Amino acid sequence: MKLKDLFTFERERNVFTRTFTRIWLFLKPKREAEAALRKKELSIDIFTARNAAVMALIFAWAGFYFLYQYNFVETPNYYHGPLFSVAPNLFLQQFRFDALDAFCSYFYVYGMALLYMFFWGMAFASERKMWKLALGFLACWIAQGTLQLAIGCASPIRIPGNGVDFIRYEVFPLSESMIGIKYGAIPSGHVGAPVILFLAGWLRKIKWAQWMALGFFIAFWFTILYLGEHYIVDGLVSLVVYPTMFLGAWKFATWYERRHARKGRGC
Question: Which pLDDT tens digit goes with each residue over 169-192?
C-alpha cells in the first residue's frame, strides 16, 4: 500500500512521520531510497502471506526454544584438548580494568539487541522480500539451537578451577537470568549474528550494514574471549554454520519465488 497522504514529502510536517520516513529510507538500498525521493512518496508493503507465514514460524520456534531451554535440565559436557584451550581467555583477562569489564559485560547482552534491531529494520524495509531475510534468520537460529542443545558444551566460565574469571556475573549479575542455555558454547551466536547482518547487507546492497557488521564482528570476538563466554573454536564453527544456513535459505527462497512466478504466468 502507498501512504501518499501520510508520507508525501512536501506536506509531511509531523515529527514522528518525518523521523519514520528518514529511518525507513536509511534502511533501504540506496537505489530504492533514491527512487522514493524522486517520487516523493513512501511505499510500505509488508503485509503478505509469505511474510506472515515465516514470521509465524519464527514465533513458533521462539516459543519452543525458550520454553525448552528454561525447563530442560542440562548436562554439561566438558571438552578438552587444543581446540578447547582457555589460554586466549586467560591472556586477555590479564589486562582487566573496570571500564573494560563494564563495557564487555553490557555489550555482550545489549550489543546483540542493537545488532538485531538493525537487522530486523532492514528486513521490514525489504517489504515484500522480508520473508527471505527472515527465513535465513530462522534457519540460522534453528541450527544454532539444535547444535547447542545436542553438543552441550560448557563455556570456559562454566568450568570450575580453570582460572577464568566470571566477569559478566561480577559486573552485571542480572544478565545471568537472561542466559537460558548455560551449556551451549558451540556455536557462538555472538559471532554468528554479525555474519547474518553482513550477509543481509550484502544481499540487499546496503554498504553501511556491511561495515557495521564488521565492527560488531570484531567487538564480539574480543568480548566473548575476554569474558570467557566462548572458546575460539565456537566462533570458527559459527563461521561455517551461519553462512551455510543463511545463504542456503536465501537460495531456496529465491528458487521458490521464481518457481511461483513462473506458475503465475502459466509456465
Answer: 999 999 888 776 778 889 999 999
Triad 170, 192, 83: Cα angle to 5°: 75
CA atoms within 13 A on the CB side of 203: 25
**Three-class DSSP category at 206:** coil
* DSSP 8-state secondary structure symbol assigned to residue 83: G
Q: Are 40 and 9 in contact (CB under 8 A)?
A: yes
Pure H helices in the chain = 4-7, 15-26, 30-39, 49-71, 87-93, 98-106, 112-125, 130-151, 167-171, 189-204, 207-227, 232-264
pLDDT (0 to 100) of residue 9: 52
Beta bridge partners of 43: 2
Tally helices (H) and strands (E) across the chain. Answer: 12, 0
* Rounded Cα–Cα distance for residues 118 and 193 (Å): 11
Return the C-alpha cell found at 170: 561480577
CB 99 within 8 A of CB 105: no
Buried/exposed code over 46-55 (b: 16+ C-beta within 10 A; e: otherwise): beeebbeebb
